[in-house]
Amino acid sequence: MKKLWVSLIVGLVISTTLYGSAEEKLLDSSNALKNMIRDSKIKIPQKVLEKAQAIAIFPGTIEISIFLGGKTGNGVMVVRRSDGSWSYPFFVKLGGAGLGFQLGVEKKDILMIFESTDSVKKLMNNKITLGVDASVAAGPAGDSAGRGSEVDFKSEVYTYTKTQGAFVGVSFDGSVMNHDYDENIELYGNNITPAQIIESDGLLSSYAIEDFLKAVQKLTSY
Fold this sequence. Notes:
Layout (H helix, E strand, L loop, with lengths): L1 H17 L3 H17 L7 H5 L3 E13 L1 E12 L10 E10 L4 E11 L2 H9 L1 E3 L6 E3 L18 E7 L12 E4 L1 H8 L5 H6 L7 H13 L3
Parallel strand pairs: 6-7
Antiparallel strand pairs: 1-2, 1-4, 2-3, 3-8, 4-7, 5-8
Helix pairs in contact: 2-7
Protein name: Ysc84 actin-binding domain-containing protein
Organism: Sulfurospirillum diekertiae
InterPro entries: SH3_domain_YSC84-like, Ysc84_actin-binding
């Protein structure tokens, strides 16, 4: 009975994250990023933002925990180009399993800041496993972060979460990120890869794309 109940929950929460057009999902990502920027508890140190090579946001990511937990989410990513500008956004997916000790479902917005070009290159090749292909840690936050604190700023990926549930703390070790080719094709209208999106300057834009890039600029305006 418990297994059936969990299956019904999984079907419900996954269906809410999969429906909607690419434009709608991009707007959801913009809103999640704006909410994080406005949250006074999530104040990302300038040192982290200065080194940022890529930024990914996963709005409404679902975490299910019943002794063995799992995460699933669809998100949007941008990469810093060689001239310092941000690329057009492209879609990525997050999935993985981890240990859990409670029964429940939690919804959270997840922000990931990639600090190394190596980790970004690995993702561009197809996928990246956090904690294996790139070190991952909860991101430092607040005015005191980096000023006499124990933060060493050596992680390749920093994560920030805005939770809409009862659980506290998230482990991303073992989580896998990869490309969402179908959503990228829907957004840009042709068979395009993330590498091509990053390198391109002439893609068709839209309100959703511009809105997301403005949110990224606001986040990184240190």
